[in-house]
Each structure stands twice: as C-alpha cells, then as structure tokens.
Amino acid sequence: MLLLICDICQEELSIDKFLFQSSCGHGFCTTCTDATKSRETCPLCRKPKLKNVPPHRVYLTPSTSRIEDHATSLTNSLSILDSGSTPKQFRKVSSKLRTIANSKALGNSDIAVQLLASAKNMEERLQYIPHQLQLERDEKVALQRKVDLWHARIQMVESQERQIKCLKATIRESNQNVARLQSEINKLTVCADGLRKEQEKLQKVSDQQKKTIAEKEVRLSDLQLQVEDREKKNRLLKQKLKAVSKSTRPPADGNESLFIDSSNTGH
Fold first, then answer.
1. What is the pTM of this model?
2. Superfamily (CATH H level) for 1-65
C-alpha cells in the first residue's frame, strides 16, 4: 500500500485518503482538505484554486518507497507552519524530521543535513511561540479595549445624533408654531386696526353728540329761563287781575279814567 504524509497534519495515510487540487496538484488528507476548503488558495503553494472544480483522488502504482520523498514532503510542510499552528504540530514535524535525518538510509547526505537544520530551526521557533502568542493575546486585548472604547464613543455619538434629530424636529415644530402665531398676530393686528378706526369714528360721533347735547342743554336752559320769566309775568298779571276783580265800587272822585270795563278783563 502506498503511504503519503499530509503536509498539514503530518499524518501518514494511504493514498486513497488523499484529495488533490486540480490547479497545482498538491494533495492533503480528506480531513485537512475539508478544514481548508474555505481557502481560495492552496495551503502549501498559495496558488489559487480552480472554481467549481473540487479536489479529486489519484490512483498510482508505486514501485518502491523512497525516504528522500518522505523527507522532502516533511520539509515542504514547514512552509505552512506559522503562529497559528499549535506547538504540538511543530514538535511532531520536528520529531519526524530528526527521525528521518538520523536514519541510516540518508547517512550524511545533503537531505539529512537539511532535515537536521530544519528541525533545529523549528525547535528554536518553538521557544518563541509562547512569547509570540502572549504578545498576540496582549495585542488582541489592547485592540479589544480600543474597540470597546470606540464602541462606547460610537454609541454616545449615535445617542447625540438621535438627540440632535429630536431637537431639530422640536425646532421645526416650534418654528411652525411661531409661524402660526405670527399669522394670528397679523390677523389680530389687522382686526385691531379696524377696531381702532371704528373706535375713532365712534369717538367722533360721540363727541359730536356730546356737542349737540351741550347745545341743546343750553337751549333748554334758555327756554327754561324764558318759561320761568313768562310764568313770573303770568303770576304778576293774575295778581293784578285778582286785585282789580276785587274792586266792586268806582272811585269817589268819579274819575272815569280809573274805571275798568269788565268787558276788557275777559269775564
């Protein structure tokens, strides 16, 4: 059975457990293929995947197993390890690299030297991974704090914007009310002007009537004086007539000039 090593998980599996990309030819186990299917590029060479062409199986008839190919596959897997990979993945790859490099089949070949150098480099990188992860965590926390701060500020700004909208609506309503009140004031002003003019006319009529009444009062006063004078004269005349009517005998001297003819008295 032909066994292959997945460059992602470093598991040694039979070839029927692998699926290969049509764009570049790289293959990974079915588990890693499913885990990376959302990526638009190959995890190993970063070449864009073909759209609408799913990974496929390949069927080979191997002759012999070559440890050099095994070592080369492990070396290529180093390119996909980054800060997102777990320390377990790093240690697993490093351990396999040392195992293959120290095998008798490789001896002191260039591949063995390369594998040992890669293992050493990986172990050195492993020492910095916890520190790098902590730095990334701290940076994430700091960024989250900034995000929370900006989120609070955004909420405050949104609240202020809502208040501004409410104030603008209130101002518009107030302006409309002011316009209505101004219209009413204008109408009342016109009405007041009309009333004032009417009052002035009525005042003139009233003044004229007062003047007429005063003139009539003067005339009535004059007439009253005339009536009183006439009544006074009538009383005097009546007194004279009464005094004359009481005289029953003519005067002793027989002077006819003092005789009053009764026919002139109206009796």
1. 0.31
2. Zinc/RING finger domain, C3HC4 (zinc finger) (3.30.40.10)
